Predict the 3D structure of the following.
Amino acid sequence: MPARSMERCHEAVKTHPKTGHFETHHGAVEWHILSPKGEDFKFKNLVLWIDEHEELLPVSKRTGNRVDKKTFYREIMRLKSDNEKYTYFRNDYHGWKVIKKIIKVVDQSDT
């Protein structure tokens, strides 16, 4: 496949509602999280939410810098996993809590 054609395919994947960086991404799930200040956040795509709310990410006591977006994502996913397994290894990450179990978003228009 020619390089130009591949570039167009990659761009199409990035801009398509089901594969791009959108709430409608095929892997998007519903979230309900609580900030350390008690603010409720409900949304469908954790990665997108983190990108849009980077200023809310916690500051590491060790480094004095905001935690990395990937670190925050990983730790919130761990909280969700612990909640679903009822292990409750930890119930928060820097004060952030997962309130609602995630539910797979199913698009009924494709069936």
